Amino acid sequence: MDIEQLRYFLAVSRYRNMTLAAEHLYISQSSLSKHIVQLEEEVGLKLFDRNERTLRLNSAGHEFFSFAEELVAKHGVMMRKMQQYRQPDEGHLTLGSIPIMSQYDIHRAIAAFAKQYPDITIQTFEEKGDHIVKMLDEELLDLAVVRTVTLPSNAYKVIPLADDELVFVTNTNHPLAHKKPLPLREAAEESFILLDSGPGLYDLCLSACAKAGFSPTIRYQHTRIESIIGFVAENIGVSLLMKKVISFFQHPDIVWLELEEPATSTLALVFPHGKKLSPSANLFRNFLIKWFKK
């Protein structure tokens, strides 16, 4: 049993799906399945209840999860403390991000950084914004990529990476589908399907509706953008999503419209004020800043 196996176990536990967990970890599904089977064999117990689509922790799995989470966290703290004794171009860093790495090209930036600095290992976590900030506060992360609206205070050093704006997302046959730009007040009677991403973006959606003079009827909340797109495509409701995020997905049955009164948000690289970054984290910070300036 090693730290990587525990990281794989935690990812499968959180995503409850082998394919999604494998995408998050940047490994093949077959390789991830093999690691989970090996881990269960070593423990001598099944840790998941399995059906065709999902994996859920059983009683033993829930108890194992608490130990695994603590061990991975302590390993991360240990590795960061050791950075001060290593050369800048070798070492380890932990990066937390809201689940937008692909949409904002961050996965390509990480891959390019890894090629340039092959002796620096990068551990990534994708979670809701409030959870990422909590991990940052608990020193479980070196750096984090979040929307600034997620930050609860000004206790963080904020390095803006990209600005984005809310857009209205609807079915192509919807009566509002051709209103460009859209006065959001015209959607006051619609049923909304919003992204359950924690405080910040959700509040931005509510604020945009309030400025338009109404409180939205929220029919569903989902953690995955693909699910929202599927429901909107079936004309079950409408949504508000970030422009660069929805532009990443191609679906023939949906259309997005800019708002007449823009609601904007900034994606930023953040870390606590006063925190001394490790040499590896400093290298990545500078690399990411240059990457977004291209």
From TrEMBL:
One of its GO terms (molecular function) is DNA-binding transcription factor activity. Gene3D superfamilies: 3.40.190.290, Winged helix-like DNA-binding domain superfamily/Winged helix DNA-binding domain. The keyword Membrane does not apply. Residues 1-58 form the HTH lysR-type domain. Keywords: DNA-binding, Transcription, Transcription regulation. Pfam families: HTH_1 (PF00126), LysR_substrate (PF03466). CDD domains: PBP2_LTTR_substrate (cd05466). The keyword Transcription regulation applies. One of its GO terms (cellular component) is cytosol. PANTHER family: HTH-TYPE TRANSCRIPTIONAL REGULATOR BSDA (PTHR30419:SF28), HTH-TYPE TRANSCRIPTIONAL REGULATOR YBHD (PTHR30419). Belongs to the LysR transcriptional regulatory family. This is Transcription regulator hth lysr. The lineage of its organism: Bacteria, Bacillati, Bacillota, Negativicutes, Veillonellales.
